[in-house]
Amino acid sequence: MEALSLLQWLIDGLIGIGLLWLAWRALFCPELFKAIVLFIAFGLLMTLAWVRLKAPDVALAEVAIGAGLTGALLLSSWAKLRDFDANKGMGVREKNRVQSEQKTKRPFFHWLSATPVLLMAVGLGYGVLQLSPYATGLSTAVAENLDASGVSNPVTAVLLNFRAYDTLLEIAVLLLALIGIWSLEIRPSVREATLDPVLDLLARLLTPLLLLVSAYLLWVGAHASGGAFQAGSVLGAAGVLLILAGWRLPLSLAGLPLRITLVVGLSTFIAVAVLMMLDRGQLLAFPPSQASLIIFVLETTATLSIAAILAALFLGSRPDHSEKI
Amino acid sequence: METFYLVLVLFLLLNLAAGMWRVLLGPTAADRMMAAQLFGTTAVAVLLLLGQVEGRSALHDVAFVFALLSAVTAVAFVRRAWSEQEKKHDSK
Amino acid sequence: MTLSDYLSVLFLLAGAVFFLAGTVGLLRFPDVYTRLHALTKADNVGLGLIVIGLAMQAESYASVGKLLLIWLLVLLAGSSISHLIAKKALQKGVRMWRR
Fold it and tell me: Is B22 in Cβ contact with C85 (below 8 Å)?
C-alpha cells in the first residue's frame, strides 16, 4: 500500500510540474508556433490532470474543446497571421524578434501587469486554503433533486436544468464570436491547395466515426460523462476535417440553411426559457415530468449549433462568399 | 497488478517529458508537431491504463475522443500551418 | 496471478519498450523522415501491445471492442498523417539525411 501511494504521489507531482512548466514555456516562448504546440501539449496534460482528480466529465470537455478543436483553430489562425505578415513584407520571426526586444526594454510594464495577476493568485490560494477540507459544496443538494431533473448524470442535471442559463450564455458567447469574425473578416477563405487522395480517404473514414461518437456522447450525457458541448465539438471536428480535405458546403446550403443551423440552439434555448417564464413564472424552471424531453431537445439543437459554429469559426469567413483560388 | 499499471503510467509520463525536448529543439515545424503527436498517443495509452486502475469505462470514451481529435489537429497542421511560405527556413 | 496476467504484463512491458524506442528515436534521429519512422513505432506497435495487454484484463467483450477500436483509429490516423507529413516535407524540400 505504501508503494502504491508513493507512486500516485509521483504521478500527480509529475503532472503538476509538467503543467506549470508547459504553461511557463508557452507564455514566454518568442516563437508563436512553438507556443501553440506547447499549448496543445498543455491541453493534453490537463486532461490527464482532470482524470487524476476523478473528474472524467471535465476531462472529456477538456479533450473535446481544449485539446482538440482549439489546437486546430490556433494553428489555422497562425497560418493566416503569417500570410498576412508575408504580404506586408515582414516575417513572423522578424516581428517576434522586434517584439521580444521591445519587451525586454520595458520590464516596468511587465511587472505592472504581473502585479494584479500575482495578487489574484495569492487571493485565490488563500481562499482555497480557507475552505473546509470536508466541504461537500452543493453536491448533496444536487443529489437530492436529481430525480426531478429528468437525467441521472448530476453534471448534466446542473448544466441543463439547475443552472441552464450557464449553458445558454455559453452558446450565446460562441455565436457572438462567430458574428464578430464574420463582420471583421473581409478576405475570402483559402481554398485548399491540392486534393490529397490519402486525406480524402481519411476524411471519408473518420467523418462517419465522428458522427457516431457525437451522437453517442449526446445520448450518454443523460446518465454518464458526455453532453452537448462535447458532442457538438466532435461533430464540429467532422466539419473541420471535411473543410481541410477540400470539401465545401454547397452554395444552396451556405446561405439561409446554414444560418438557421447556427442559431437554432440559442433560439430554442431562449424560446424554452420564455415559455417556462410564462408558464411557471421562472426562467428555465422545467416541470419535472417533462424535464427529460426538454433537456433532450435543448441538447440536440445545441449540439447542432455548436458544431456548425465551430466549423464556421475554423473556415473563418462566410462560406457564401466566393473563394480565393 | 495495480502497482504495475501505475509504474507503467509513470514510465510513460517520463517518456512524455523527454519527448518535450523535441518541441523545443525543432528545427522544422513538423518536428515540433510530431512530438505533440507522440504526446497524444502516449496520453491515450496513459488514459487506458488509468481507466483499468480506476475501473472507469468513461476513460475509454475520453481516450477515444482524444485519438479522434488529435488526428484532426494534425491534419489542420499539415494542411494549413505548414504551408509553402516557410520554405526558406526549412531547407537549409 | 494467472497465466493471462503474466501474458498481459509481458504485452504491456513490450508496449512500454516501444514507446521508449519511439521517444529515443524522436530525440536522436537526424532528420524529419527518420523521426517520423520512430514516431510511428510508438503509435502502431506500442499502443497496439498495450491495448492487447489491457484487453486480456478487460471484463466484457464490449470494452475489448472499444479498446481495439481505439487502436484501429490510431493506426488509421497515424499512418495517414505520417504520409501527409512526409509528402509535405518532400514538397517543401526538407533535406534527407546522408551519412
Answer: no
